[in-house]
Amino acid sequence: MERLQKFIASSGICSRRKAEELITSGKVKVNGIVVTELGTKVSFEDTVLVNNKKIVYEKKVYYMLNKPRGYISSVSDDKGRKTVIDLIHDKRRIFPIGRLDYDTTGLLLLTNDGEFANLMMHPKNEVPKTYAAKIEGKMSMDTLFSLRKGVLVEDIKIIPKQVKIKSYDKKTDTSIVKITLIEGQNHIVKKIFASVNHPVIKLKREEYGNLTLGKLRSAEYRELTEAEILDLTKKKS
């Protein structure tokens, strides 16, 4: 048995708060009867309709993928490009949590649990994400300190949780810099480095919360353990 608003949110059609609004406004039916009381318990055997559309119960699944270059973080693409869903052998209606750019690689989570996805993406939950960026040029200590203090990106001040220079290749005049952020705006890492005149050449997400890629090779994936899921969601629901 599960609370009705959580059951709806977990289907991926909306957030739990929106599900609560739908319930209290009389737009949800359980076994043909309009239900407006929050906290009503339902099971997979019940028929739940939202705006007269049936909610399909599916066992929840949580994947970690080492995304390769050349795939978009979407369920489908009207341009016919390959999507990360093509890499996962699962017939359930899974979707990526957030996105990595077409040319960005690394750790990406996928699920069919809408509530879990909302928890991971909501800014207030501040789930840290760590990237390794190959950038043009040698980053000075002054630039490093300015990044740590925060930089303006489209009039918004972004303060990384951590920034470290890992290496510099004099031959190619490129650096590897690790950066940890809680923000999730599109292209945010590339925009940060561009703002200090160090364009990103390659970008890989290496950590998500306490998760790391470990031994996952490019295009490989695995299910998260119950302990990993609990660690990601504790104190966030």
Q: Helix count?
A: 6
Q: How large is the share of residues in beta strands? A: 25-35%
Domain module tally: 3
Ends apart, CA distance between termini: 18 Å
CATH superfamily of the largest domain: Pseudouridine synthase I, catalytic domain, N-terminal subdomain
Q: What is the CATH topology descriptor of the largest domain? A: Alpha-Beta Plaits
Number of strands: 17
How would the global form be characterised? elongated
* Uncertain residue ranges: none
* Annotated CATH architecture of the largest domain: 2-Layer Sandwich
Q: What's the helical proportion of residues?
A: 10-25%
Give Rg in angstroms: 21 Å
Order of helices and strands: EHHEEEEEEEEHEHEEEEHEEEH
Topology:
Elements: E1 2-3, H1 4-10, H2 16-24, E2 28-30, E3 33-34, E4 41-42, E5 48-50, E6 53-54, E7 62-67, E8 95-96, E9 105-111, H3 114-121, E10 129-136, H4 141-149, E11 151-153, E12 156-158, E13 162-169, E14 174-181, H5 188-195, E15 200-208, E16 211-212, E17 221-223, H6 226-233
Parallel strand pairs: 9-15
Antiparallel strand pairs: 1-4, 2-3, 2-5, 5-6, 7-9, 7-17, 8-9, 10-14, 10-15, 11-12, 13-14, 15-16
Explain what the structure shows.
This protein is an alpha+beta fold. 21% of the residues lie in helices and 31% in strands. It has helices at 4-10, 16-24, 114-121, 141-149, 188-195, 226-233, and strands at residues 2-3, 28-30, 33-34, 41-42, 48-50, 53-54, 62-67, 95-96, 105-111, 129-136, 151-153, 156-158, 162-169, 174-181, 200-208, 211-212, 221-223. The strands form four sheets. Strands 7, 8, 9, 10, 13, 14, 15, 16 and 17 form a nine-stranded mixed beta sheet that branches. A four-stranded antiparallel beta sheet has the order 3-2-5-6. A two-stranded antiparallel sheet has the order 1-4. The model has no long low-confidence stretch (mean pLDDT 93).
